[in-house]
Design brief:
CATH architecture: Alpha Horseshoe
Structural class: mainly alpha
Number of strands: 0
Shape: elongated
């Protein structure tokens, strides 16, 4: 039993946790495959995996991870405009305030790269 909870509360918590893990498993698989493809510079496959993760996502954290991965793909492909757009969406959609300065810094860096072309 979980300290401080009744048996019914502990069971409910355990059931919700198991459901969340089950729901996240396919998303985690897409994220992992996307990262692997990106490391191998197989950009189209990486993009497809991150898009699949995004399409499967139900929560803001899942979507954030997928969008961040997509931005990585676009940046590595040299599509800075698309990377910037993706990061701006991420920043504006339910991103915690503490993460926004990092996203803004990355967006600024990408804008500099885009101008330098």
């Amino acid at each position: 039993m979980i300290a401080g909870l009744t048996e019914a509360q502990a069971n409910d918590f355990t059931n919700r946790l198991q459901k969340a893990q089950k729901d996240f498993a396919p998303i985690a698989e897409h994220l992992s495959k996307g990262k692997d493809f990106l490391q191998k510079k197989e950009f189209k496959q990486a993009e497809n995996e991150y898009k699949s993760a995004l399409d499967s996502s139900k929560g803001s954290v899942d979507k954030g991870l997928a969008r961040y991965g997509l931005a990585d793909v676009y940046e590595k492909k040299g599509d800075y405009k698309k990377a910037i757009q993706t990061l701006q969406i991420l920043r504006d959609e339910n991103t915690a305030d503490f993460a926004k300065p990092e996203l803004d810094a990355r967006i600024s860096l990408l804008k500099t790269k885009l101008i330098a072309r």
